[in-house]
C-alpha cells in the first residue's frame, strides 16, 4: 500500500536533506512516520510546503520519500482549485491513500480537489479546526485590546481582529475540504462533534497520537523540580490563554510568594531596543501591561524557543503544568506533561476532558475563571501527596493514550479499512 502524507512542515529528516535546521514543531509526526515507514507492507511518502520553491523537489530518505512544493496562496482560488504541483506529486508518488494532517491551510483543500479529480481516497486527520477556533479567538479579552494596533500590527495589517478574520477566511477552505472528503481521523468528542456537524456523512475513525520520542524516556520527580514553579508551554497568541494565567498569578502569590511562571517560546513582551519595540504585537503589549500592573516582572520568565530535549527538561523541572487555553482539541502539551507525570491543571475546553480526568489525574477548571486556576495550582503546591497521586495516575493514563505500538496498529487498521472501501 502506498500512502502519501501531506503535512504543514517538513519532518526533521527532510530538513536535513535540504540542509536546513529541523524545526522544533510537529515532533509528534516523527514517531508516527518512523513506525509506519518501518512496516513491510506500507510505503510512505511525505509532501510539505517549502518557501522560495518554484517547482516540486524530491528528496529520498532512508525509508521515506519526500516532496517539497511551493506554498498554496489562500488568496488565489486558482491555486486551490487546480494545483499543478500537487498533481505532479500525486503522479510521482502514485498513492493508494492520501493522508492529510490538519485543515488550517489552503493546501489541504487543494490536495482534496486534486484527489477527487483523480479518484484517490483521501483522509484528513484533525489537529485543530480554525473555523471553530476563530469563534473563540477573542475569548476573555477586553474590547479595547481586540481593536488596538501597534506599529507592527498596522504595518502588517495584522492586529487581533485581523488575525481572527484570517482564521475565518482559512476556515472557509477548511469547511469545504471537510465537506468533500469521506473519511476523517480524530481523537476527541469535540473534534467528532465539530466535524460531523460540518459533514454529517463523513466516516469518522478514532486514533490517538504518538508523542515526541524524548517524552517516553523520562519521569517527573517532585524532589528534582523547582518548587512552586508553573510551566505554560506557549503564549504568543490569545487562544493559549496566557493573559488568564497572568490574572491567576497574584492569587497564587498570596499563598506562595516564591511562585514563578515559565512561558515557553520567545518573549512577546520584550521591548528593550527600538527594533524590539517596532516588532511588538498588541497582544504582547497587553501581556506586558498585565505583568507591570500586577508587579510580576520578576515572576514571569519566557524560556525562548525550546527544542524537544529542552522542552522535556522544562517540564521535568516544573512543579505544575498549566494549559489555560480558551479552546483546544487534544493539546499535545498536556499529553507530554501527563506522560512525564507532571501534575496538571487545564481549562475545560474542547477535547481536554477526554484526556484528563478531574480530581483523579489532575484538575480541570472553567476557562474564564482564573481564580479557580489559582485555587487548583495552590492545592497542588500545598499537598505533596496529591501531586504524587496526580503524577502517577496521569502518567498511567497517558501511557495508554499515547502508546506507540497501539497507535501505529490502529493507523494501519484505518488505512486498510479505507483501502478496501468503495
What does this structure look like?
The two termini are 16 Å apart. The strands form 2 sheets. The chain has an 8-stranded mixed sheet, sandwiched between helices. It has a 6-stranded parallel sheet with strand order 11-10-9-12-13-14, with helices on both faces. It contains 18 helices and 14 strands. The chain is α/β, with parallel strands linked by helices. The chain has helices spanning 12-17, 28-37, 77-81, 84-93, 106-118, 130-136, 143-147, 151-156, 160-180, 189-198, 242-255, 274-279, 282-293, 308-316, 332-340, 370-382, 384-401, 404-420; strands spanning 2-6, 43-49, 57-60, 64-69, 97-101, 121-125, 183-186, 203-206, 229-232, 260-263, 300-302, 320-323, 344-347, 363-365. The model has no long low-confidence stretch (mean pLDDT 95).
Chain-wise SSE layout:
Blueprint: E1 2-6, H1 12-17, H2 28-37, E2 43-49, E3 57-60, E4 64-69, H3 77-81, H4 84-93, E5 97-101, H5 106-118, E6 121-125, H6 130-136, H7 143-147, H8 151-156, H9 160-180, E7 183-186, H10 189-198, E8 203-206, E9 229-232, H11 242-255, E10 260-263, H12 274-279, H13 282-293, E11 300-302, H14 308-316, E12 320-323, H15 332-340, E13 344-347, E14 363-365, H16 370-382, H17 384-401, H18 404-420
Parallel strand pairs: 1-2, 1-5, 2-4, 5-6, 6-7, 7-8, 9-10, 9-12, 10-11, 12-13, 13-14
Antiparallel strand pairs: 3-4
Helix pairs in contact: 2-18, 5-9, 6-9, 11-13, 11-16, 15-17
Amino acid at each position: 500500500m502506498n500512502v502519501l502524507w501531506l503535512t504543514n512542515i517538513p519532518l526533521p529528516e527532510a530538513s536535513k536533506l535540504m540542509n536546513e535546521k529541523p524545526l522544533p514543531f510537529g515532533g509528534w509526526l516523527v514517531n508516527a512516520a518512523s513506525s509506519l515507514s518501518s512496516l513491510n507492507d506500507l510505503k510512505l511518502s511525505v509532501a510539505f510546503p517549502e518557501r522560495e520553491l518554484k517547482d516540486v523537489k524530491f528528496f529520498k530518505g532512508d525509508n521515506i520519500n519526500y516532496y517539497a512544493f511551493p506554498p498554496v496562496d489562500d488568496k488565489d482560488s486558482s491555486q486551490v482549485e487546480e494545483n499543478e504541483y500537487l498533481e505532479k506529486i500525486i503522479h510521482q508518488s502514485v498513492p493508494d491513500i492520501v493522508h492529510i494532517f490538519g485543515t488550517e491551510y489552503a493546501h489541504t483543500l487543494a490536495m482534496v480537489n486534486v484527489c477527487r479529480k483523480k479518484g484517490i481516497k483521501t483522509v484528513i486527520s484533525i489537529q485543530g479546526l480554525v473555523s471553530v477556533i476563530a469563534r473563540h479567538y477573542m475569548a476573555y479579552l477586553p474590547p479595547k485590546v481586540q481593536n488596538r494596533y501597534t506599529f507592527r500590527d498596522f504595518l502588517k495589517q495584522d492586529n487581533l481582529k485581523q488575525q481572527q478574520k484570517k482564521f475565518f477566511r482559512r476556515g472557509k477552505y477548511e469547511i469545504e475540504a471537510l465537506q468533500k472528503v469521506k473519511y476523517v481521523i480524530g481523537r476527541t468528542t469535540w473534534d467528532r462533534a465539530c466535524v460531523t456537524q460540518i459533514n454529517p456523512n463523513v466516516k469518522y475513525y478514532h486514533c490517538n497520537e504518538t508523542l515526541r520520542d524524548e517524552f517516553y524516556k523520562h519521569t517527573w520527580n517532585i524532589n528534582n523540580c523547582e518548587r512552586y514553579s508553573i510551566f505554560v508551554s506557549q503564549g504568543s497568541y490569545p487562544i493559549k490563554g496566557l493573559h488568564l494565567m497572568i490574572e491567576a498569578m497574584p492569587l497564587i502569590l498570596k499563598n506562595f510568594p516564591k511562585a514563578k511562571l515559565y512561558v515557553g517560546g520567545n518573549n512577546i513582551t520584550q521591548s528593550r531596543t527600538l527594533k524590539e519595540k517596532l516588532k511588538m504585537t498588541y497582544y504582547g503589549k497587553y501581556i506586558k501591561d498585565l505583568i507591570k500592573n500586577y508587579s510580576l516582572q520578576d515572576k514571569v520568565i519566557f524560556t525562548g524557543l525550546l527544542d524537544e530535549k529542552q522542552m522535556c527538561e522544562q517540564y521535568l523541572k516544573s512543579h505544575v503544568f498549566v494549559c489555560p487555553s480558551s479552546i483546544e482539541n487534544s493539546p499535545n502539551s498536556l499529553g507530554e506533561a501527563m506522560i512525564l507525570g507532571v501534575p496538571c491543571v487545564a481549562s475545560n475546553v474542547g477535547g481536554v476532558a477526554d484526556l484528563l480526568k478531574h480530581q483523579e489525574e489532575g484538575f480541570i477548571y472553567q476557562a474564564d475563571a482564573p481564580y479557580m486556576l489559582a485555587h487548583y495550582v495552590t492545592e497542588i503546591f500545598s499537598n505533596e501527596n496529591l501531586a504524587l497521586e496526580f503524577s502517577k495516575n496521569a502518567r498511567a493514563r497517558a501511557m495508554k493514550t499515547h502508546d506507540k505500538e497501539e497507535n501505529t496498529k490502529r493507523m494501519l487498521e484505518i488505512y486498510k479499512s479505507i483501502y478496501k472501501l468503495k
